[in-house]
Design goal:
This protein is α/β, with parallel strands linked by helices and about 240 residues long. The protein has a single domain, classed as Spore Coat Polysaccharide Biosynthesis Protein SpsA, Chain A (Alpha-Beta Complex), CATH 3.90.550. Helices cover about 40% and strands about 20% of the residues. It has ten helices and ten strands. It has helices at about 15-25, 40-50, 65-75, 95-105, 125, 140-145, 155-165, 185-190, 190-210, 215-225, and strands at about 1-10, 30-35, 50-55, 80-85, 90, 110-115, 135-140, 170-175, 180, 225. An eight-stranded mixed beta sheet has the order 3-2-1-4-7-6-8-10, sandwiched between helices. It has a two-stranded antiparallel sheet with strand order 5-9. It starts with a strand and ends in an 8-residue tail after the last strand. About 45% of the residues are buried. The structure holds guanosine-5'-triphosphate and magnesium ion (MG). The site of magnesium ion has 3 residues, from loops.
């Protein structure tokens, strides 16, 4: 049994289609959207699309939340033994993509199964990078194994990877054909978008450089990795 957890802040443009794709995914029981501080009607649209909506944090517009804490709140609101995390800003996502991302997990071939955006000619390379994607299914215990002080902002995906790698557990990765997202530039404008993207990129890069994450984790990750050759959503 899998519950979907969708962190969403100011994603009114996309959250309803994401919720709909999750609800139609045959592996998913309940869809939980965690909204904090949205100044648009993300929460209302998610609820109208059939999600259970958790409102976190402070007033609308307050920047007190974090993606990691939103995911944590979603996990806490669920009693499912496995969670499918899905970002709320995706474009082109359907339940077919999610069904196929879940399949290796359900079949017991992978402890973690991730779906990557479609980067065209770069896909063979992307599939072998440490996954930073927000679309992945893991057992509940994997998320709970992350120490609370490491549940912070956009680095949360790397911390999930670390639990998998250090446990020498198998991962399955595949491309979700045609799936992308609204970038920070589209959401925030060029200047602020580039600034935040650079900030996020630098935070992620600094993890191995400052020793927060060990390089050997990547080696263990690669050894447990199966790249699924057929993209999800491809007919
Ligand atoms: N509830 C909640 N959701 C968040 C928060 N920060 C980010 N999110 C959501 O997490 C998802 C991923 O965040 P993005 O900002 O799109 O991050 P990204 O896709 O990794 O980054 P870009 O490539 O720069 O767009 C989106 O659905 C966001 O709305 C937060 O503080 N609270
Ligand atoms: Mg995004």
């Amino acid at each position: 049994m899998i519950d979907a957890v969708v962190p969403a802040r100011n994603e009114a443009a996309t959250v309803a289609t994401v919720v709909d794709a999750c609800r139609r995914c045959s592996a998913v029981r309940e869809v939980i959207v965690v909204d904090d501080g949205s100044v648009d009607d993300t929460g209302d649209r998610a609820a109208a699309a059939g999600a259970k909506v958790i409102q976190r944090g402070g007033a609308a517009g307050a920047l007190s939340g974090s993606k990691a804490h939103a995911m944590e709140a979603g996990v806490a609101a669920s009693d499912a033994p496995a969670l499918l995390f899905v970002d709320g800003d995706l474009l082109g996502l359907t339940s077919d993509h999610l069904d196929e991302v879940c399949r290796p997990f359900i079949e017991g071939r992978a402890t973690m199964s991730v779906g990557w955006f479609d980067y065209g000619a770069w896909n063979p390379l992307v599939l072998r990078l440490p996954p930073t994607t927000g679309e992945r299914v893991v057992p509940r215990w994997v998320f709970e194994a992350i120490p609370p002080e490491k549940r912070d902002g956009y680095t949360i995906e790397i911390m999930i990877n670390e639990v998998i790698a250090e446990g020498r557990l198998p991962t399955s990765a595949r491309i979700m054909r045609g799936v992308t997202h609204r970038t920070k530039r589209q959401k925030l404008g060029r200047l602020e978008g580039y600034r935040r993207t650079w900030e996020m990129f630098w935070t992620l890069l600094s993890l191995p450089l400052t020793g927060v994450v060990r390089w050997r984790s990547y080696w263990f990750y690669l050894r447990g990795l199966t790249v699924e050759s057929r993209p999800a959503g491809g007919r």
